[in-house]
Amino acid sequence: MSKPHSKRVELDDLKTSTAGLEAMIARAGKQGKGLPPVDKWHPDFCGDIDMVIKRDGTWFYMGTPIGRHRLVRLFSTVLRKDEDGKTYLVTPVEKIGITVEDAPFLAVEMNNANRGDDQVITFRTNVGDVVEAGPNNPLRFEIVEENDGIKPYVLVRGRLEALINRAVMYELIEQGEEVEIDGEIQFALRSNGVLFPIMPAAELARLSV
Q1: By the 8 A CB rule, do 128 and 135 touch?
Q2: Angle subtended by helix axes 2-26 and 69-76, to nearest 10
Q3: Cα gap 17→162, rounded to integer Å
Q4: What is the per-residue pLDDT across 137-157, written as a single tens digit (0 to 9) for each?
Q5: Which helix or strand (DSSP H or E) is residue 118 part of?
Q6: May I ask the CATH class of domain 2-100?
Q7: pLDDT tens, 14-64?
Q8: Where in the chain do CATH 3.10.540.10 domains reside?
């Protein structure tokens, strides 16, 4: 009988703690439309909490997935990544460290408008952000050596990026083109007038074999 009682206590604690986190965000005050100005807030560091954003975009708190999308969205609006490389939940009075396994957001949908120099690639994240790749929201590509893969990211805001999920990545690569950059043929993507090199075209051909 003790185990069910213990589990019930843990779940009650989780609900209480999550409610406390939600209240913390609410204490940021009503900001009206748009995102809270977390870059302008400089509260004291209050320590770390057991919150993890997994590689697949799932948020965990105290080892349990946060199933309420509205709550995840709320937390995501007060995320900030600082120069120390760590990610925090920030309000005017609190700064709390969390763990991010890869990127805090996941790009789950894309739209491609126009062609050539006028091409605009837009992404939607798992928490509802919509961003156009371009000078303010650049694309970045990591080459994963162990499996010869590509991990693409798009900057959402501040230092916060979204990892582009695999299905969207395949759509994205279809929009690429070969261009000469500094005397070398590169495979690259255009969006909002910016050219984003991915890798040398010869290397991409090798990986595609």
Answers
A1: no
A2: 50
A3: 27
A4: 999 999 887 655 789 999 999
A5: none
A6: alpha beta
A7: 444 556 566 655 555 444 457 889 999 999 999 999 999 999 999 999 999
A8: 2-100
